[in-house]
Amino acid sequence: MSVPLRLVLALHNHQPVGNFDDVFEAAYQNSYRPFLDVFEPYEHLQISLHTSGSLIEWLDHHHPEYLDRLAALCEAGRVEIVGGPFYEPILTMIPPVDRRGQIEAYTNWLRSRLGAAVRGMWVPERVWEPALVSDLVDAGMQYTVLDDYHFKCAGLTDDDLFGYFLTEDNGRVFRVFPGSERLRYLVPFADPQETIDYLGEVHAAHPGSVIVFGDDGEKFGTWPGTHKHCYTDGWLRGFFDRLCENRHWIRCTTLAEAIDHTPPVGKIYLPEASYREMTEWALPTRRLIQYEQALAQAADDPRLTALRPFIRGGFWRNFKVKYPESNEMYARMMQISRELQAALAQRPDHPQLQEARRDLFRGQCNCPYWHGAFGGIYLPHLRHAVYHHLIVADNRLQQLAHGTSPWVEARADDYNFDDRPEIQMANDRLAAFFIPSRGGHLYELDIRSIGHNLLATLNRRPEAYHLKVARGASHADDGVASIHERVIFRQEGLEERLQYDNYPRKSLVDHFYDQEVGLDAVAASSAEERGDFVESSYEARLRRAPQKTQLVLLRRGKAWALEPTIRKTITLEAGQPTLRIVYELSGLPTDGRVHFSTEFNFAGLPAGADDRYYFDAEQRRLGHLGTQLDLHDVQSLGLADDWRGVAVELKFWRPSHVWTYPIETVSQSEGGFELVHQSTVVQPHWYIDADEEGRWSVAIDLTIDTAQAERRSAQAATATAG
Fold it and tell me: Could you give all domains of the chain from N- to C-terminal order, each with its CATH number?
C-alpha cells in the first residue's frame, strides 16, 4: 500500500480592526460557528486554524464559548492554532521591532487563552520579502504558508510544490509551505468530488507528499452565496464525508505534524511576492488595465500556459504610491512607532507605554492600507479605526511627556517621506499637519478627545474595474462563485457617478475661479482653475511662543494675468480646540473683482443620516451632510455629528459665500460595486474688491467641540465604576 497523501486544511479567519459589530456577528453566525458545528463530529479530521487578533478579541468578548470549543479541540489534537502578528499588519510595512513585538504578543495571548503551543504563523495577505525570515525566527516562529505563486516566481513548477521547503536569511532557517492555488479555486466552489479527483491525481504522481489548502475561512459561509452553499446545501458536510471515505489514502493533518513527520523537499529563496491577484491590484491603474487586456487577448493562445508562471504584477509597497492616503496613514504610524520606541527605551515597563504599544499595533491592521477585491482603503470606517488607535497611542505618549497642563508645540520634519519638510502643530486638544510643498494644505487634523482624524479623506480616482462599471452591466448566476469572478451592482446608475479628482481633497486648498462659476461646476470638478496655487509649493515659517505657535505659508503665483501673493497664517494656542486661519491676499487689481475660494474637507462625518447635519449661526439645521448648499453672506457654518458627539464650526470674520457638496467614490468590495461617501466639502468663496493697495484679508476660526462625546465618556466611566 502506498504512503497516504497528507492534506493540510489551513484556514485563516479575519475581521479588520474597526469593522462593525454586526459584521463580526454575521461572520460568526454564518461562518465560524457553523464550520465548527460541522467539523467537530469528524474525529478523523484535523485542521490548522489562524484567527486574527482583532477577531479573536471580539470572539472572546462576545462568544467566549467558541474559544472554549477551540481550546478543547486544540487539547484533543484536532486543531492546530496558528499564530502570527496580533493585529494582521502587512509585515513588510512595519518596523522590525513591531514585527517581532506583534508576533510575540499574540503567541503569549494564544498560549494563555487557548493553551496553544504556537509554532507556525500566518503571513497577512501572504505579502513576503526574504528579509522577513530573520525577524520571524527571532520571534519564535518555525514555519508559514505562502502561495504556490511565490514558488513559481522563484522558478519552480507545479510538480515541485508538494511538500515544504527550507529558506534562510542571515543564518536563520525557516520552513515555508506552498498553498495550492488550484485548491483555492476548487474549495468550496466546485463539487467535492472534483477536489477528491484532483487529490487523487496528486497522490498518483507524488505518493506520500503534502498538499496545502491555505485560504480565508470566510469562504465557508461569509462570502456571498457561500452560507447556503456550504451548510444549507451541504457542501461542507459532503466534502468532509468524502475525505473520511478516502482516509486510507488521504490523511488530513496539520502544518505542525507535516513538519514533524516529513522531510523538506528542498531549499528555496523566495522573491518578494504576495498572492497573484494582489500583485495585479498593486499595479498602477493604467498598467493594470493594459495587463488585463493583454491577458484577455492572449487567453486562447496555447503559449500562454507556458508563459503564465513568468508573468508578474506589481509590488505591494507601491500601494502607498497608488493611494497617497495610504502613505499618510503609514507615515503617521511610523512616526508613532519611532516615538514610542524612544519612550520605551527610557521607561520600558511603564503601563501607559504598554497600552500605547497595543494601540499602535491595532493601528497597523493592514486592511485600509490597500485595495483589491475587498473595500480596503475605500471603507471609511476602517481608515478611521486605524487613525483612532494611532491617535490614542499618540495621546498616551503626549500625556507622559506633558502631563495634564495645557501645552502647544510645532515641529518641522519629513513626516511623509517625500524628502521635503512638513509641519506639525499640536496641543493638548488637536494635532494638525501641513504640507507646504503641496499647496500649503492641511492634510491631517486629529481630534485628541475622540481619537478622530477629520482629514482621513480619499480622492475619487480611476480604477481598472471602472471599465465594468462604465458598461453598466451586472450579472450573477444562481450558483456560487469566487469574489474575484462576481460582477454585482449594489446601486443603480453607478456608471453615471464615475468622477475623478485632480488634486488632493484636503483643507486650505486655494482656488481662483471666473466670477460666473457656480456650485454645479465646482461640485462636478469641471470648474476651470484660473490660478496655480492648488498644489504649488508655499514657503513656510514657524513662530513659537510658550502658549502659542504660528505657521506662516506664503506664495507668489499666477491667476489670470495677475501675480497675486497668498499669505495664510495658522495659529494654535495651548488648551484651545481652534485653528485661527488668516488669509491675506495682495497683488490684486484695484479696478475689478477677483473670485477666490479656499476648500475644506471633513471626513468621518457621514451623509444621509438625520443626526449628521449642517447648522447655521442660529443653530438651525440646513440638511444632512450630503446636501449641496449654496449659501450667501453667512458668518458661520457648522457640521454636527450627534452620533460621534462632535461639532465642527467655521466662523468667518467677514460675510462669506459657502458651497457644500459630498465626495463619493464608486468602489469595489466583496459584495459588489457601491457608492461610498468619503468626505464633505465646505468651500467658502468671495468676490473680492481689493483696497487701494490691492490687498484683501479674511480670518476663519475652525473650532471643534467634543463636549457631547466627553459627557458620554464620563457617564460611561461612572457607570462602569458603579
Answer: 5-274 (3.20.110.20), 488-711 (2.70.98.10)
